[in-house]
Structures are given as structure tokens and as C-alpha cells.
Amino acid sequence: MFYRLISNNVEKSAIYKGEICGKSFSVITLLVQKIRWNSHIRATLVPCVKRTSSGIRSITSKISESMGTVQPGNPKARRKAIWVILFATFLGFSAILAFECYQHDFQSWLERNIDFLLENTFVVFVVSLILVSPVLAAGTYLLLLGNRTVRAQRFPPLGYAVVSDTLVLEGWQGVRRGRVIQLLSVFLLCSAGAIPVVMWYIFHTFGSAT
Predict the structure, then answer these.
(1) CA distance 93 to 99
(2) Of 142, 158, 157, 150, which Cα lies nearest the Cα of 190?
(3) Which residues in the chain show pLDDT less than 70?
(4) I need a labelling partner for 78 at 20 to 30 A (CA). Which of 51, 93, 161, 166 fits?
(5) Half-sphere exposure in the Cβ direction for 168 (13 Å, CA)
(6) Helix (H, G, I), strand (E, B) or coil at 210
(7) Nearest in space to 81 (alpha carbons), one of 162, 157, 141, 142
């Protein structure tokens, strides 16, 4: 009886150990398969990630190349431009204010000296030319800038200080920008230069008629 109990316990313990060993073996098998699967995934994904990163770098480099270089702004040129704008604004405001204050005096002076102006139309031309001289100066500046840009095929030209950060245009893009500046300068010069000529023609015509 006692022997039978011992044999049963031995058999149960053997079965239990066998189950444990089987479960341990299955767990080890799963771990090995998982390790192999992870290594397979790593071997598959790493080249893809490398290709993706290299593609992103190439796209970024192409975008930066297409955008071109940026010329940083010059603080001295910025301060100079601000002072020029403030001075021009002050002169324009002063001229408008003076005209509003002395409008009646100017009209009375013009009526008293109309005969003199009709006889000396060159004075009318010179006065009109002085009034439009700021526009003529701006047109001349733009014309020189446009010519320099077209010759250099680059905007802004080399050695030219810019007020703010400016995208550099080279080749045909720089030439096109230079042509646009030239057209704008010609428009300003023709418009401003036509005013003294028209004023001279009007006074000259009335002087010849009288």
C-alpha cells in the first residue's frame, strides 16, 4: 500500500515536471521566434529608414537650392533709408502745409506776375523742374540700379547693401528683376519729366496767343 502511494506520487511529479518542461520549452521556442522576427523586422526596416532619411535630406537640399541664398540686411543701410524716408516725408508735409497756408498769397502773386511768366516761360520750366526733382532723382536711382542688375545678372548686385534680408536672384531671374526696375524707372522719369514740358508748353502757347 505504501509502495503504491509512493509510485503514484512519483508518477504525478514526473508528469508535473514534464508539463513544466514542455511549457518551458514552448516559452523558449516563442522567445527564439520573437527574437528572430525582431531581427528580421530590423533587417527590413533599417534600410527603409536609411533610404527615407537620405530621401528627406535630398529633398531638403533641393528645396534649399531652389530657394537660393539670402543676403542679410545691412543695419547702416536700414538706418540711412529710415532717415531718407523721414526727411522726404518732412519736406512733403512742409510743402503741402505751406501751400495750404499761402494759397491765396500765391494766387494773388500769380495774377500780378502772369505777364512776366508768359514772357519768360523758361522760369516756369525751371520751377516745375525743381518741384518734380525728387521724383526724377528716384527714377534715376532706379535706372542705375536696374542697369547694374542686368549687367551683373544678379539681384541685388554684388556690393549693394540691402535694407532687409533679401533673396538673391541670379541668372535670368536677376535679369528679369533688373528689366522690371528699368521699366519702373523709365515710367517715373517720363511722367515727372513731362510735367515741366507741359507747363512750359501751356505758358508758351498762351504767351504766343496774347
Answers:
(1) 10
(2) 142
(3) 1-68, 209-210
(4) 93
(5) 18
(6) coil
(7) 162
Q: What is the largest CA-CA distance in the chain?
A: 157
Cell 512519483, residue located: 10
What Å distances lie between residue 161 and 53, 80, 93, 120, CA to CA?
38, 11, 29, 45
Question: Which secondary structure element, helix H or strand E, spans residue 114, and what is its range?
Answer: helix 114-119
Place of cell 505758358: 203
pLDDT digits (tens, 9 = 90+) for 7-61: 444 344 444 444 544 545 464 565 556 566 555 555 554 455 455 555 555 554 4
Residues 155, 149 contacting (CB under 8 angstroms) = yes
Instruction: Report residue 162 as a C-alpha cell.
Output: 540691402
| pTM reported for the whole predicted model | 0.61
Q: What share of the chain is helix, strand, coil (3-state, %, to 5)?
A: 85, 5, 10
Nearest to 80 by CA among 181, 162, 140, 167: 162
